[in-house]
Amino acid sequence: MRIGYIVPQFPGQTHIFFWREILALEAMRHEVHVFSTRKPPRGLIAHDWSKEAMARTTYLGRVDPLASARGLGRLAARGLPGWDLKASAGFARDMGMALGAAERLRAEAERLELDHVHAHSCGRAALIACLAHHMGGPAYSLTLHGPLSDYGPGQRVKWQNAAFATVITRKLRDEIEEVLAGHLPDRVLIRPMGVDTEVLQRSAPYAPPEHGRPIRIFSCARLNIVKGHQDLMSATRQLIDQGVDVRVEIAGEDDEGGHGYRRTLEDHLKKLRLQDHVKLLGAIDGGAVRQKLEEAHLFVLASWHEPLGVAYMEAMSMGVPTIGTDAGGVRELIEDGSTGYLVEPENPGQLTRTIRALANDPDALRRLSKAGRAHVEAHFRAALGAETLVEQIRTTLATG
C-alpha cells in the first residue's frame, strides 16, 4: 500500500515514536510518504535521523494564496458537508489557514497514488487531511495522543469524516465517547504508542547503586511546567539535605529551542543550589538517550499530566527501574509496585520518599528492572501500532 503519514512539526524532539512506526511500516513492505505542517525550531532538531527524515518530508504549511483559492474552489464544487463555520470563529480561522495545505496534500496524494492518509494528530494536521479528502483526496484516519481540549476546534468535523481512529489509552477513549457521541467513526481502537524493544535493550545487566556512591537518576521530556522537572529538582534538594548523594540529568528542551521554560528551570536550579547535582542536557538524540538510560540507576519523570508516556516505555524497555506519576493514562502503562512506581503529581515529598526507599532496596530495583522490560516487550512494541494501521487501512479499502 501507499500510505500518507502526517505529523505536525516533524521531526521534533519527542518524535522518535513516529520514526520507528514509519520504519516498521516500511519493513512490512508498504510505501510511506511523510508530510508535516512545518519544520520544528532548529534547537529541537536533535536526532541522528533528523536530516534523513526532513529530506523525505513534504512540508505543507507555507502560505500559498493560489493553492488556497484552488482548494476553496474544489470544496465549493463538491459542497461543504453541512459544516457550520459560523458556530466557531476558531474553526473558520483554522479552515482558512488549512485550505492551501489541504490542496497541496490532495495534489500530492493524486500524484503519488496514495491509498490512504493517516494524521498523527487531532489538530490542524487532521483538518488538512479532512479537507483534502473532501477535495477529492483519499480517505483519512487520525490518532488522539492527548486530551481532546489540546487540539483546537472542529473536532466533530475531523472525527465524523474519518474512516477510523486510534486513541492511545482507555481514558482518552472514554473522554471522546462522551464528548463526541454521535460524531465518531465506526472504528475507534485503543492502540498505545510503542518503542523498538530490539534497539532499546541493555548491553549489560542492570546493577543497583553501590553503597557510598551517588545515585544516578535520568529524566527525559521537553522542558515544560507540566513535565514536573521542577518537582524532581525539589526532591533532589530534599534528598541531598537528608544525606543522600544524587546526580540528576534531564534531557529535553523547551518549545522555543532553549529560550522559554528552560530559563525558569535554570533559575529554580540556582535557587536550590543544585548546580553540582542537576544537569540540563538539552535535546539529545536517541542514541544518547539510550546511553544515559544504560548508565542510570533510576528513571524519574514527575509529570503533572501525561497521556501515556513514551519516555517511561523507553526506560522500562532498557530495564531501568521507573518512577512516574499517577496522572493521565500512566496507570495504563505502569502498575504501581509491580512494573514501576507511581507517586502523586506535584508532590516532591512523596517523590523524595519513593526514591530514597528504592535506593536502599537493591532487590526491588532488580525486580523492577526485569518486570518493566517484560511488560513493555509484551504490550508496547512499536510494530504493534504499524500492524494496527495496516489492518485498519486494508479494511477501509475493502469496504470502499
From TrEMBL:
The keyword Transferase applies. GO terms for molecular function: glycosyltransferase activity. Keywords: Transferase. CDD domains: GT4_PimA-like. InterPro entries: Glyco_trans_1. Residues 213-374 form the Glycosyl transferase family domain. Pfam families: Glycos_transf_1. The keyword Glycosyltransferase does not apply. Gene3D superfamilies: Glycogen Phosphorylase B. This is Colanic acid biosynthesis glycosyltransferase WcaL. It comes from Pseudoponticoccus marisrubri. The lineage of its organism: Bacteria, Pseudomonadati, Pseudomonadota, Alphaproteobacteria, Rhodobacterales.
